[in-house]
Amino acid sequence: MALAFNEEQRSLKQTAKDFAQSKTPVEAFRKLRDEQDPTGYSKELWSEMVELGWAGMTFPESYGGFEFGYMGLAGCMKELGRTLTASPLLSNVLLSGSTILYAGSEAQKQELLPGIASGEVSYALAMDEGIHHDPAQTALSANADGDSYVLNGNKSMVIDGHVADQLIVLARTAGDAGDTDGLSLFVVDPNSSGLKIETVKLIDSRGYARITFNNVSVGKQQLLGELDQAFAPLDKALDRARVCLAAEMLGGIEEVFERTIEYLKERKQFGVLIGTFQALQHRAAHMYTQIEMCKSALMSALDALENDNDNFAALCSGAKAIINEAYELVTNESVQMHGGIGVTDELDIGLFLKRARVSAELLGSASFHYQRVASFEGY
Amino acid sequence: MSDLETFRQEIRSWLEENCPHSLRNPASQEEQVWGGRNIEFPNDDAKLWFERCVEKGYCVPDWPAEYGGAGFDAEQTAIFKEEMNRIKARAPQVNLGIWMVGPVILEFGTEEQKLEHLPKIARGEIRWCQGYSEPGAGSDLAGLQTRAEDKGDHFIVNGSKIWTSYADQADYIYCLVRTDPDAPKRDGITFLLFDMASEGVEAKPIELITGERHFCQTFFDNVEVPKKAVLGEINKGWTVAKRVLEFERNMMSDLGSTVASTLEPRGAAQRYLAQNENGELKDSVIREAIARHEVYKKSFDVTQQRMVDEFTHGAGNMNTAMIFKYCGTEEEKRKYELLLKIMGEKALGWNDNDHFADDELSVTLDWMGAKTHTIAGGTSEIQLNIIAKRVLGLPGVMS
Fold first, then answer.
1. Nearest CA in chain A to B390
2. Hey, which of A32, A299, A316, A352 would disulfide with A37, CB 3.0 to 4.6 Å?
3. Domain of A25?
């Protein structure tokens, strides 16, 4: 057991830190937003990230990966979260790549994963349908029709779904919405007939899509993994993505917190630094204690993942839940402590505030994850 | 086998032979053995266990043998504790002397003071209490007013202390007094060790909201205290006092782990609330609150380990330790509020053994008791002051 990054992981994290600080500082994200970049991330910089090996970091070597593990990638995500770096790491590598890795057949893994690791093909995972993350509620239907399946239904909050080369679609092949049995995954060409993609603008200025499936026909060979049995491998993949998203969020939390403490040490009112006010000191100190708890939650989840412990899923949910809450606390307090400037677009804090709320909804709200912990624990 | 492995085997077999089986479970408050002139044992096993441990120095295993300890180094002490915990052996003796004043006597005491006080603590002959807070000096501890006038070869002490736990049963007090009223407030304080049987000392119990009466107000009326009672230097008592507080905070952050366990939110919910056919609680708000508590508790529990691991990997930081008192006691308070919500009337009984089970009445008392933990040993607000100043480096903070 080790609740700290090892030397190799720290070296990867340092590389990510250098990259984020020099290539993708917050100003770079602001520029993407101001220019209303249709992709939502810089393809050039994504190529550089691919060259650094990040796209294949979590895959086995036999599928074109580098086998540095999810803990290594989580360390990188934490650094990228500090500068709000926009990239398809979450959509393409963590969500789609992990789903292929855990759900796909051997042949499918051989065929699809090297394309992600090399940056040649990008995927997006079309999973949720309602206003909250809850994959078991999938209703989009896939009905067998000769050598194909016909898909009908809607998907929402598809991360980078507007620009992905391929979609991985979670569909119901048996049972009813709410059942974990009867779910299947399909690799779908976004240019398929009957498939309509709409870009959705969210507060965090990242790329999301709503996708409508109207009698979209996909060949049987496009079924990813086993029929009706997608939920378990998908959930396994989702937990890897969840814990890495939590790491990205914790990076954002630490950045906002540090910037806020600096502000308390330079802003003067009534002739004194506002950091001398006990009303603010106590709230700042409380935030510190909550961030320390988040670190412990995240590291114990990553450690369980690294050691393949059975309690990983519960620890992952715990970490995502308390990090959701802490990001809300820290961004709200930061805006308030900055006063008037805190609600201006000029100050970066607003960008973190917006990212925090979207990240909290992505892959599960605090409520979703606390309920999930309770289910694992049997109460 | 390494030396430490051999050592572990020796401790394990000694405990196996000497710790009575009836004492291999957590002690309730009534079953704890408090050392002192009037030492009492709840049963023969407790007396036997105490005597065996005293003989080996195991009440204070990390103290040097010449002061009544077993002379274990840090690694050996850790192993000793692990082996004690492994069989859930009860502490042979409970005494503020062991975990509060003893360590500072070891650190600041003269050889004469060490030989006078430490063996009596190790053998359970003297029970200690703490004279820190005063009616007018709580969080602002350094504002204390109890006077010790220098009369050449002795002091005359006048004033009063409050929240002196078990002062009515203690034999000795370690007490902060003002020896220089003109100096800045922290520079005029002296740390005294004296006998509660001295003429002019009176302890009056205070009844708390729990009904318990172990806190006292203690009055000093022209008490004569010899000069050799000074621990450290005259007017330099604040340094010693702060060390004691560090020991106290470390102890309080893991309160609850050494006493008999009571109902936890999950178990209480399963006992008192409706569940569906899968055993899931029907009240999703309570269900979520329990999960939240358990996630926080787990995160808190691994934080010590995370600090150690970070040090091992060269990224260590002592600042993290500052959260323990605040987070531990605040989460404990939230836990009991949650238990009250889960248990309803069952957690509201007052001394009514006819209608309430023992563990139900315990929850009620512990709910009230938890209120004292965010106050005693430095309030939560004082903890936040310390974090703001020492960790965050915020300007102009009180401490």
1. A285
2. A32
3. 7-122
